[in-house]
């Protein structure tokens, strides 16, 4: 039986919990209800088509990721994968880019939800609750849940996620039963109906951001039962489930609104999903709002679990201060990694929220994260090819280890370029600049460390990526 050597609570999570980590990190209700309007604003009625293209790209990425998760399960996720298969320097750069992703995702989700909560309560009931008050309260609850242990936080995450999925699917079915103007049609999947190729691909970028989260399964490797089988199944399972969810629900929401009034959908002051729910369900529309609240808290738990496990692994390996590798003696959680993650959440969420607004924070960081992930996924894909053409040469398969990594990398680069040329309006136009600047800073840091002869810590960190590989006890074989 494969086992993982770790100080975390090994084997605490079975397949359903790990699967829901991926599904929850994608955040079904938030990704649909809070994203469909902005995707439609750039892709028009073909917003569901943008989700379909994103689903195809993410599926090929998932296939590549499973090939590494099978043999290199570690809390370090992409840091471990790229350090192990390419080079520790590339692994560090991957982790550097990763800092634009999970560590910031909790902040942008809670900030946007605070904005959403404030505007909805004010408009519907006349209650005034500042977005930052919701943000602070949610951050405290989240930190306590994650601190108490992976099992506790995961159980809460699953409960919240199942509730939100059922509510959104129920709304989508109601939309199909009671369509708006235009009736039931498949215009949304006709590419000729897109307002422009640039708009469609910008919609794909937002849709890829909606799908991101399937890879959050990887950092839970050391706490999963039989990770060699569980992780690949959970990665692909979360992608397939959410693909079906988005393709049906995004189409159904536009059908429910009315495909002849897409302009009204885009310019609606109130979230269009809420308006549809009011028309179809009356006072029960509040269930959709509750689904969004559930989704934000659930995805924040998933993001924080993933981010803190990577901080823990990098601290254990020496790429970050070693004190981050401390584990609580009772809860078996990386407590010292939780506190800096909470601090990052507060600084980013409140800082950007007060500067450009909590709603613009969500869209700005969403584009930046997606563009940064193009580089992360590209390095990981290259690692798949190197790993299976090298030490795993006997297992090399042309489609799995060459075609999928290459095709998904080229497609992501192309979509990324098409989405930012020409640059979108501010503040989105500054997102590519943030990614370029952040990448340049990481490369400069690597160059400086090498020049000064101080990168031994980095090389040790890459070597430490070996320490949590699967040990096949029955065969007394270590995968080095």
Task: Write a brief structural summary.
This protein is mainly α and 480 residues long.
Q: What are its keywords?
A:
single chain, mainly alpha, Amino acid/polyamine transporter I, three-stranded antiparallel sheet, 1% strand, disordered N terminus
The DSSP helix count reads 19
Share in helix: over 70%
How far is it from the N-terminal to the C-terminal residue, by CA?
Answer: 18 Å
CATH fold assignment = Amino acid/polyamine transporter I
CATH class: Mainly Alpha
Instruction: Please summarize the sheet with the most strands.
Output: 3 strands, antiparallel
Tally of separate domains: 1
**Beta-strand level of the residues, as a percent range?**
under 5%
Report the principal-axis shape.
Answer: globular
The fourth-level CATH homologous superfamily is Amino acid/polyamine transporter I
Helix-strand makeup class: mainly alpha
Would you identify the CATH architecture?
Up-down Bundle
What's the gyration radius in Å? 22 Å
Looking at the chains present, what oligomeric state does this protein adopt? Answer: single chain
Q: Please mark out the parts with pLDDT under 50 across 5 or more consecutive residues, or reply none.
A: 1-6, 461-480
For the biggest β-sheet, the strand order reads 1-2-3
The counted number of beta strands is 3
Would you list the SSEs in sequence order as H and E?
EHHHHHHHHHHHHHHHHHHHEE
Q: What is the arithmetic mean of pLDDT?
A: 81
């Amino acid at each position: 039986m494969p086992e993982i050597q770790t100080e975390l609570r090994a084997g605490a999570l079975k397949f359903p919990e790990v699967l829901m980590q991926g599904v929850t990190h994608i955040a079904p209700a938030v990704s649909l209800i809070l994203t469909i309007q902005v995707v439609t604003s750039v892709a028009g009625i073909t917003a569901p088509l943008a989700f379909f293209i994103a689903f195809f790209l993410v599926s090929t990425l998932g296939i590549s990721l499973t090939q590494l998760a099978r043999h290199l399960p570690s809390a370090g996720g992409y840091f471990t994968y790229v350090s192990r298969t390419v080079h520790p320097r590339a692994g560090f750069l991957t982790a550097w880019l990763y800092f634009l992703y999970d560590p910031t995702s909790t902040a942008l989700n809670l900030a946007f939800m605070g904005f959403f909560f404030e505007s909805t309560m004010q408009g519907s009931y006349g209650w005034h609750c500042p977005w930052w008050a919701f943000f602070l309260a949610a951050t405290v609850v989240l930190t306590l849940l994650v601190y108490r242990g992976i099992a506790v936080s995961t159980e809460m995450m699953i409960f919240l996620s199942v509730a939100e999925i059922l509510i959104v699917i129920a709304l989508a079915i109601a939309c199909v039963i009671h369509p708006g103007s235009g009736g039931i049609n498949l215009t949304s999947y006709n590419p000729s109906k897109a307002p422009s190729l640039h708009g469609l691909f910008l919609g794909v970028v937002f849709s890829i951001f909606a799908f991101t989260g399937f890879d959050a399964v990887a950092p839970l490797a050391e706490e999963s039962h039989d990770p060699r089988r569980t992780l690949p199944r959970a990665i692909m399972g979360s992608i397939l489930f959410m693909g079906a969810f988005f393709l049906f629900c995004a189409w159904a929401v536009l059908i429910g609104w009315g495909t002849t009034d897409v302009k009204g959908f885009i310019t609606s002051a109130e979230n269009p999903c809420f308006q549809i729910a009011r028309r179809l369900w009356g006072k029960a529309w509040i269930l959709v709002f509750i689904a969004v609240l559930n989704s934000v808290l659930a995805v924040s738990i998933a993001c924080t679990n993933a981010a803190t496990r990577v901080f823990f692994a990098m601290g254990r390996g020496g790429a970050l201060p070693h004190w981050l590798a401390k584990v609580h003696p009772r809860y078996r959680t990386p407590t010292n990694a939780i506190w800096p993650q909470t601090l990052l959440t507060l600084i980013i969420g409140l800082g950007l929220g007060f500067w450009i607004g909590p709603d613009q924070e969500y869209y700005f960081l969403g584009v930046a994260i997606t563009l940064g992930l193009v580089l992360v996924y590209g390095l990981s894909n290259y690692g798949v090819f190197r790993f299976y053409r090298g030490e795993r040469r006997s297992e090399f398969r042309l489609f799995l280890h060459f075609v999928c990594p290459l095709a998904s990398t080229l497609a992501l680069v192309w979509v990324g370029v098409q989405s930012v040329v020409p640059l979108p309006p501010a503040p989105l136009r500054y997102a590519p600049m943030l990614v370029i600047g952040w990448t340049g800073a990481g490369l400069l840091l690597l160059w400086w460390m090498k020049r000064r002869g101080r990168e031994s810590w980095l090389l040790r960190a890459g070597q430490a990526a070996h320490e949590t590989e699967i040990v096949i006890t029955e065969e007394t074989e270590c995968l080095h």
